[in-house]
Design brief:
The complex is a heterotetramer of chains A (655), B (126), C (280) and D (422). Chain A has 655 residues and is mainly alpha-helical. Helices cover 64% and strands 2% of the residues of chain A. In chain A, 66% of the residues are buried. In chain C, helix 4 runs antiparallel to helix 5 and helix 6 crosses helix 7. Classes of the chains: A mainly alpha (655), B mainly alpha (126), C mainly alpha (280), D alpha+beta (422).
């Protein structure tokens, strides 16, 4: 028997290995063009892909919302049918939550988080690409229903059983839409969990030297908490969906009363996921705002440790309040009381954040640039949304509000006034970094004010509608209920909002092509992402891995330029002596694997099992290819003059 | 590097002992399983058996994660990471149990069973 | 990393901030997530046990504690072998790693075999996925666990084949490695079939030599396949080559091990909650 | 001079807001389903809790918003010079301030929590001391209408009293409502009397409410329950004790029978029978002005009742298979899958609270139910009973043929018959 040895790698060896690789293990090398995007493992490119897809779906969800608003503009409207209306609000919510806000947050996680921690990429670059392509697969599966006879899913975004059962999901057979909804969410869950595991490992393990946890930028902290919320909450909905799928496909009765099932169980499993989900939507936003406020106040974040800690508390408490969505399900006094109190408790850590943001402004030199305007708008609007949340948390009051427009008002205040405002702020804030151009202040502020006004005109009246007894999810209402004027105002507001968003995107697109060039650190910012050598950042992010000496690391670098320069030179020499900057290789297999999932998912939803198996086989091939092609990698060398040499195929010493 | 070398040796030393350690743990696990199986047939109070079963399973659980899964020898962070999930899952399961044990949660289909059982019990008592 | 050519320190990875290897951290985070996954599944089962449906099956009339105890024991032992495989790999003992992996696969397959047997048996007794709520929650829970085991076995098989990857890159190896594994698999399955046949006849006619002979006769094809696969194993086992597998891969084996042990602890919970508690 | 947009816009919005809010809010909170115009103790206690939450959060909002606005304005860099002034002190926080604010938040929450807890227990079930006095009914949700059962009103030979879509209760007395459903989740919501509680399959929910005075109240299904959820409504009518007793007395009777006259009169349509567009409003201003008076009117037979038409309608009711789904106690109907029509003529609404029970509206409903309520079970069939259209049992899709077809005259007769069922 031969003794096993650890292979010693020598460049010559590697060369021969490469030449012996079968063609399908050839690593793609394109840096531009379609192939480069399809095979990319670069966190920045993936971030952009997420961002563009998310914005596309934001517009889709927005158009769905506008159709909803048109239908509700006047009483007894016949603009669209009940059925179509039901599909619209289901898909509007699903699209906005899973295909717009979550991936837009993921875009920032991908793009900014590695830069903020001084890393060259995430811990598992190929897995990162995979998460994106799986996300696309899920988005396709969810939306493909629009093009089928059955129509888009129409069960509401929380799909309460037994409306999702075979018997009720549609009056007539061929109800593939609910299966597509199940499959789409399931696939999106896979994407989110994989992406989040990657972020967790990256943040914990890939920090630049000296970057202790308590020096992490708040946005990175919030990324970490969001990732934890995702990996811990998605399993609940996965199980719920599996059980539902078993009911629909294999005749079990988890939620079927005829078989003794309890539909209420679905609600519990859904909201065990659903409530953490809303914090998944808001924590990244809070992170972004916590970056913008200090930058534009030219002051460090007030009470950094408490802001971070309160994020953790919000995340943790978020797992113990799910039944506040079920106050009207007759849970009994004890359970209702317990969840009522737990929900109120969340106001405390959230309040802490608000107070600290105000504290950050206090005594600063506030520059009211567009990102700052959106960030300030966020504080105002989110606070209002939070207060209506607290009104919900009082269970007896909620009995009158649940499933009324008061809830619709609450969650649009936190979702748009909260998440969307902050994400729009983030786009503005980081636009110069990502594209090297800066957005015009006039047009930026104009879009802000139109959005701000439009938003409030749309959603503030909804509080009154709800308190005046208008139930949500109603395609028509009668004219004698006292809801007419408020609805009309809301619809007008929605169009003002749409104009604002239109201006916003028009300006962005204009700036991308024609905007003023901006060099580097345009806002006099504080965190490491702004220390990249060029804007947009080079593929390897930093010529030299930064060493961190303080919170707000870049601010420190700027105030200690001399020492930092010396230190950088030393680190650079060290890196070069280790063979240069290590970069991951591109790969086709994430895409192949995700395509397998798409095909399998589509066929499974249509109950065509040979097709599902075929998809599974493609998936397996993808996984195997992925495993056997190995991580790959190549080295780059930075020269004194700032030029970069090396690249895939030019240097095979990496493994 | 020398500090690292020392720890490496430490670990190497432990590794040698681990074979026996692992075998012993496996044996303890097997024995506990045996005890559990016997336990359910013993004429003891129900609460006692349930508690013991739960405790014994917890012991098995902890032995596997701390020794087989190396948590005991690894950085504490791994333990924290895993326990975040474990504690939340445990809490959620517990909360669900509590909610579904409440009177208000008894499903209508089971209410008939309970009614039948109660009637039977009443009939037996007479 | 080539900088540390000497002994590899398995608990610290100097390329990461915490010293914990990325893959390991990934695995632990995944397992934390999986806790919630099984938490939700187990909750479903227990909730429906709390409020049984009318004319639902009586688990006591269906369960076979002997069988379940046996498979529980098997899974525990597989965990032991898995732990040993990780230990062996960390010391660079490829040969031992392979054996331990094979052993783990072997026990894993027995566990799966027991589960398949258990399921068919239960189906015969009238408990199916859609016969009643107990069937639905029971099969979904234990079936999901079974799928986890099956994925684990698949992973182990790939890892096993991976251990043959030769240092000499020009060598063709995948086919041989697969053949070796296939021989092992055939040997495992056939010996199980043979044993079943023998005990079957033995139970009916008493355990005499004649009975054993009859049993062997009943499974003639299996016997031949068994002998042939053993011969293949021996033949292939004689030739080996220097491999590109060793301490550097310990973290991969360890990650796999974490997964396997987790599946084991889930079973520990299932065994108590789903099976034992029914007997009270 | 540079046009400065920001302050201009801000001033404009403030002005707009100040001008508009009082203009609208008055009307915005006083509809038939207003949660502010409470008419019973349950709704009252819920409103009280709501007010507590409003005052507390408003107070916090005013304080936080004031500080926020002040900080923004005070520390704003007005000129580019300001921005490049030496950086402000890089302070990191103040633990005492933080702790103080946390304590204040907790205190605020306690103010909300105490009445919340009280109200949770109060609204859960009829208070102990009134339990003996409570009246019990069962409300059952179905796609997309409500059935009301009166377990304490037994009728010889046919079990408990059953009505549909209009729940009549005694005023001034707690009513305990058992909530059941026969298909998906619905929710029982009468905003003026109390918050909603869901009707969940396989779950024995209940709620209680009380109307302090006699009155006519709007209700609505408040949980999304499929295609026509939006038009699943109902009414609650609270009556003084003796009126209620009289009502029960009448309801327990079999359906009213009208004897055809010896000399048949000519048939004519006394109302407009042209097809109305989908979603067309189904109420009149007169009715809205005093619904309770309208309800009282509905209790008495029409003065110009056409006895012959009624008889013809009764025959058609059987002929057209209406009886397979509907019950008319004492007459032909035996169905259990649809609203009980025994005293349909005494109800103010058609199609689950959606349309006022006028002849036009009833005609519209009988002729074109799918225009009124898309996907309704009378149109597509329910529990194996064929509805207006035929469904292919294999594909479960409409075949395109009709099972029940009515023409204007037939419908007219049915209207007359149904309206005679007082
Ligand atoms: C971004 C998403 C997001 C966020 C952050 C929140 C935040 C909160 N939500 Fe919201 N919520 C949703 C999204 C969100 N919600 C959605 C989508 C739904 C509807 C789902 C559906 O049915 O479709 C919903 C529904 C919902 C309900 C159920 C309503 C019903 O259906 O009956 C409840 C009930 O308690 C609730 C409560 C809260 C509370 C207490 C908070 C708190 O976190 C808010 C805390 C913030 C503040 C309180 C403001 C700032 C604090 C201070 C200035 C400190 C001082 C304040 C006090 C001491 C009061 N929410
Ligand atoms: C992040 C989440 C999110 C976001 C951003 C939004 C954004 C909007 N939402 Fe939505 N909404 C939800 C999440 C969200 N919503 C959820 C969870 C529900 C519950 C669903 C359920 O009950 O199941 C809901 C439900 C919901 C309802 C209630 C439906 C009902 O219950 O019957 C309404 C009604 O007005 C509404 C309106 C709007 C409007 C007007 C916007 C606007 O802000 C949209 C703004 C965007 C645009 C207007 C796009 C602009 C587009 C252009 C400028 C391009 C124009 C180009 C062309 C025309 C080519 N939403
Ligand atoms: Cu019934 Cu909505
Ligand atoms: Cu919530």
């Amino acid at each position: 028997m031969a003794t096993a040895t650890t292979a010693a790698y020598s460049p010559a060896d590697a060369k021969s290995r490469a030449s012996h690789r079968p063609w399908f293990f050839t690593r793609p090398v394109a840096k531009t063009g379609l192939v480069s995007w399809l095979t990319t493992v670069d966190h920045k490119k993936i971030g952009l892909l997420y961002g563009i897809t998310a914005l596309f779906f934001f517009l889709v969800g927005g158009i769905e919302a506008l159709l909803i608003r048109v239908q509700l503009a006047v009483p007894n409207n016949t603009f669209i049918s009940h059925q179509f209306y039901n599909e619209l609000f289901t898909m509007h919510a699903t699209t906005m939550i899973f295909l717009a806000v979550m991936p837009l947050s993921a875009a920032f996680f991908n793009y900014m988080m590695p830069l903020q921690i001084g890393a060259r990429d995430v811990a598992f670059p190929r897995l990162n690409g995979f998460a994106f392509w799986v996300f696309i697969a899920g988005a396709i599966v969810l939306n493909v229903g629009w093009f089928t006879a059955a129509g888009a899913p129409d069960v509401g975004w929380f799909g309460y059983a037994p409306l999702t059962s075979n018997a009720y999901s549609q009056q007539f057979a061929g109800d593939v839409s609910t299966d597509l909804w199940i499959m789409g969410l399931q696939i999106l869950g896979v994407s989110s969990v994989i992406g989040s595991l990657n972020f967790i490992v990256t943040i914990i393990n890939m920090r630049a030297p000296g970057l202790t946890m308590m020096r992490l930028p708040v946005f990175t902290w919030m990324t970490l908490f969001t990732a934890f919320l995702i990996i811990l909450s998605f399993p609940a909905i996965t199980i719920a969906l599996v059980e539902l799928m078993m009911d629909r496909s294999f005749g079990t009765g988890f939620f079927e009363v005829a078989k003794g099932g309890m539909p209420i169980l679905w609600q519990h499993l859904f909201w065990i996921f659903g409530h953490p989900e809303v914090y998944i939507l808001i924590l990244p936003a809070m992170g972004i705002v916590s970056e913008i406020l200090p930058t534009f106040s030219r002051k460090p974040l007030f009470g950094y440790p408490i802001v971070v800690f309160s994020g953790a508390v919000i995340g943790f408490l978020g797992f113990g309040v799910w039944s506040h969505h079920m106050f009207t399900t007759g849970m009994g006094t004890m359970a209702t009381a317990a969840f009522s109190l737990a929900t109120m408790a969340i106001a405390v850590p959230t309040g802490v954040k608000i107070f600290n943001w105000v504290g950050t402004l206090w005594g600063g030199h506030i520059m009211t640039r567009t990102p700052m305007m959106f960030a300030l708008g966020f504080i105002w609007m989110f606070m209002m949304g939070g207060f209506s949340g607290v009104m919900h948390s009082a269970a007896p009051a909620d009995a009158q509000q649940q499933d009324s427009y008061f809830v619709v008002a609450h969650f649009h205040y936190v979702l748009i006034g909260g998440s969307i405002f902050a994400l729009l702020a983030g786009i503005h804030f980081w636009f110069p970094l990502i594209f090297g151009r800066i957005v015009s202040e006039f047009w930026g502020k104009l879009s802000f004010w139109v959005i701000f006004v439009g938003f409030n005109v749309t959603f503030f009246p909804m509080h009154f509608l709800g308190l005046n007894g208008m139930p949500r999810r109603t395609a028509v209402y009668d004219g004698n209920m006292g809801w007419n004027s408020a609805n009309l105002v809301a619809t007008i507001g929605a169009f003002i909002l749409a104009i604002g968003i239109g201006i916003y995107f028009a300006v962005m697109i204009y700036t991308y092509f024609k905007g003023k060039k901006a060099a580097g650190d345009v806002w006099d910012a504080r965190t490491l992402e702004w220390s990249v050598p060029t804007t947009p950042p080079p593929e390897h992010n930093f010529h030299v891995t930064p060493t961190v000496h303080a919170r707000d690391a870049f601010w420190y670098e700027k105030t200690h330029a001399k020492e930092i320069a010396a230190e950088k030179a030393k680190t650079a020499a060290e890196t070069e002596s280790h063979g240069g900057i290590h970069m991951p290789s591109q790969s086709w297999f994430p895409l192949v694997t995700a395509v397998g999932m798409l095909i399998g998912g589509l066929f499974f939803a249509h109950h065509y099992f040979p097709g599902a198996i075929a998809g599974g086989v493609i998936l397996l091939i993808g996984v195997l290819g992925w495993a056997f092609e190995g991580p790959g990698g190549y080295h780059l060398h930075i020269h004194k003059d700032g030029s970069v040499t090396g690249g895939e195929g030019q240097d095979e010493s990496a493994h | 590097m020398s500090a690292h070398a020392a720890t490496t040796q430490d670990h190497a030393h432990q590794d040698d002992g681990k074979f026996h350690l692992f075998v012993q743990i496996a044996m303890i696990l097997a024995v506990i399983t045996g005890v559990e199986i016997v336990l359910i047939y013993l004429p003891l109070a129900k609460w006692f058996i349930v508690t013991s079963l739960v405790l014994l399973s917890v012991v098995k659980f902890l032995m596997v994660i701390f020794w087989f899964m190396h948590l005991k020898f690894d950085k504490a962070f791994c333990t924290i990471l895993f326990f975040i999930g474990l504690v939340l899952a445990g809490g959620t399961v517990g909360a669900l149990m509590a909610i579904f044990s409440a009177k208000d949660s008894v499903p209508l289909t089971a209410q008939t069973i309970y009614a039948e059982r109660a009637a039977e019990a009443a009939a037996n008592a007479q | 990393m080539s900088a540390h050519a000497g002994t590899i320190d398995h608990h610290h990875d100097h390329t990461t901030t915490t010293g914990i290897p990325n893959k390991k951290l990934f695995m632990w985070a995944f397992l934390a997530s999986d806790c919630m996954f099984f938490g939700a599944l187990i909750s479903t089962h227990v909730i429906y046990r709390l409020h049984p449906t009318p004319d639902g099956a009586d688990p006591l009339k269906i369960f076979s504690l002997e069988l379940t105890s046996f498979s529980t024991f098997i899974l525990l032992m597989s965990s032991l072998l898995m732990a040993l495989a990780v230990g062996a790999c960390q010391k660079g003992k490829v040969e031992a790693t392979r054996k331990m992996i094979l052993g783990t696969i072997f026990f894993g397959l027995i566990f799966l075999g027991c589960q398949v047997y258990e399921f068919t048996h239960f189906v015969h007794l009238g408990l199916t996925l859609n016969s009643d709520m107990f069937g639905a929650t029971f099969y979904t829970l234990t079936g999901t666990h079974g799928v986890h085991v099956a994925i684990g076995v698949l992973w182990l098989v790939f890892m096993y084949i991976r251990t043959f990857k030769p240092a000499d890159v020009s060598k063709a190896w995948v086919g041989r490695a697969c053949l070796q594994f296939a021989a092992f698999a055939v040997a495992t399955v056939t010996i199980m079939i043979i044993m079943l046949a023998v005990t079957h006849v033995g139970n009916e006619q008493g355990y005499t030599l004649a009975a054993i002979g009859a049993g062997l006769q009943h499974s003639l094809i299996s016997c031949i396949a068994f002998v042939a696969s053993c011969a293949t194993l021996i033949a292939l086992g004689r030739s080996s080559w220097a491999v590109d597998f060793g301490e550097a891969n310990a973290v991969d084996v360890e990650g796999m091990g974490l997964y396997w042990h987790f599946v084991d602890i889930v079973w520990i919970v299932i065994f108590t909650v789903v099976y034992l508690l029914e007997y009270l | 001079m540079r046009f400065s947009l920001v302050p201009t816009l801000r001033r404009a919005t403030t002005l707009l807001a100040v001008a508009l809010i009082p203009l609208f809010t008055a009307g915005w909170l006083s509809g038939p389903q207003s949660t502010f115009d409470v008419k019973g103790p349950v709704a009252k206690s819920q409103l009280d809790v709501f007010y507590v939450t409003v005052w507390v959060t408003m107070a916090i909002f005013v304080v936080v918003a004031a500080v926020l606005a002040y900080a923004t304005i005070k520390f704003k860099a007005r000129k580019t010079d300001d921005e490049h002034a030496p950086v402000p002190p890089q302070g990191h926080g103040n633990p005492l301030v933080e702790l103080g604010l946390i304590a204040a938040s907790i205190a605020a929450l306690v103010i909300i929590a105490v009445p919340t807890l009280k109200a949770i227990w109060y609204t859960y079930d009829v208070p102990e001391e009134q339990r003996a006095n409570a009246y019990e009914v069962t409300a059952r949700g179905l796609q997309w209408w409500f059935q009301f059962e009166y377990p304490s009103e037994q009728i010889d030979g046919s079990g408990q009293l059953i009505t549909g879509n209009e729940l009549v209760i005694p005023a001034g007395r707690p009513v305990r409502i058992n909530l059941r459903t026969s298909d998906v989740i619905h929710s029982f919501w009468v905003p003026k009397l109390g918050g909603k509680v869901d009707m969940i399959p396989n779950r024995g929910n209940h709620m209680w409410l009380q109307a302090d005075e006699p009155g006519y109240f709007w209700g609505q299904c408040a949980e999304y329950c499929g295609e026509s959820h939006a038009v699943m409504r109902f009414r609650v009518i609270a009556l003084a004790e003796d009126d209620f007793a009289a009502w029960v007395e009448n309801q327990k009777k079999s359906a009213r029978t009208v004897q055809p006259s010896a000399s048949p009169k000519a048939e004519f349509a006394s109302y407009d029978m042209t097809r109305k567009p989908r979603n067309a409003p189904g109420y009149t201003a007169d009715f809205d002005a005093d619904p309770m008076a309208a309800w009282v009117n509905f209790q008495f037979p029409d003065k110009d009742e056409n006895a012959d038409l009624v008889a013809k309608g009764r025959a058609l009711f059987k002929e057209k298979n209406c009886i397979t789904c509907h019950s008319v106690r004492g007459h032909e109907g035996v169905g259990v899958n649809a609203p009980d029509l025994t005293h349909f003529g005494s109800r103010t609404t058609v199609a689950a609270g959606l349309l006022e029970n006028s002849k036009e509206n009833l005609h519209r409903w009988l002729m074109y139910p799918n225009d009124v309520k898309p996907g309704n079970k009378m149109w597509v069939g329910v529990n194996g009973m064929a509805g207006y259209i035929d469904i292919d049992p294999a594909t479960k899709r409409p075949t395109g043929t009709r099972h029940i077809e009515l023409n204007d005259t037939e419908s007219r007769a049915l209207v007359e018959y149904l309206h005679s069922l007082k």
